[in-house]
Design brief:
The chain has 155 residues and is of the alpha+beta class. Helices cover 17% and strands 12% of the residues. α2 links the parallel β2 (94-99) and β3. The protein is elongated and about 100 Å long. The N and C termini lie far apart (73 Å). The relative contact order is 0.14.
């Protein structure tokens, strides 16, 4: 270990000139500033989305149409109720909806698929619609969305 002590020299001064302050007028080139770095980003629609895929115009239009159809016994639309098992849109804009009903003995078992087909076929861009009514897997309350559960007081 070194026992030598460092030597310091102290210099005393009467005053120091203050550092120059930057001013906006001193900037030689105007700086272009955006008000928001997300300007235009959030308003821009995603590019290259297939209209037949989720997020596309036809697919989203079909989902919106399904959300306008309500079960006559339950005040919830059939999409949030979980009765729609699948929506497939072909490149030719043919739509196939796979759905079920709450029970095979549902009073609208004969009319509901026809209404779904009619509403889906009315979506702009849809060439034709087909509804496949299935019973397997059977519908249960776990298929309902949180919005439907909230509407029915189950949350």
């Amino acid at each position: 270990m070194n026992d030598e002590k460092p030597s310091f020299t102290v210099e005393e001064v009467d005053s120091v000139n203050p550092a120059p302050r930057a001013r906006v007028e001193d900037v030689p080139v105007p700086v272009e500033r955006k008000r928001d770095y997300l300007d235009g980003f959030l308003a821009e629609k995603p590019q290259g989305i297939d209209p037949a895929q989720p997020g596309g115009a036809i697919y989203d239009g079909v989902i919106d149409a399904l959300k306008e159809i309500f079960d006559p016994e339950i005040p919830v639309n059939i999409y949030d109720l979980g009765l729609i098992y699948g929506v497939e849109v072909s490149p030719e804009a043919s739509v196939a909806v796979t759905m079920t009903l709450t029970t095979p003995h549902c009073p609208v078992a004969e009319s509901m698929p026809g209404e779904v087909e009619m509403r889906v076929a009315a979506v702009p861009g849809v060439r034709d619609a087909e509804v496949n009514l299935v019973w397997d897997p059977p519908w249960d309350m776990a298929k309902m969305s949180d919005e439907a559960k909230l509407e029915l007081g189950m949350l």
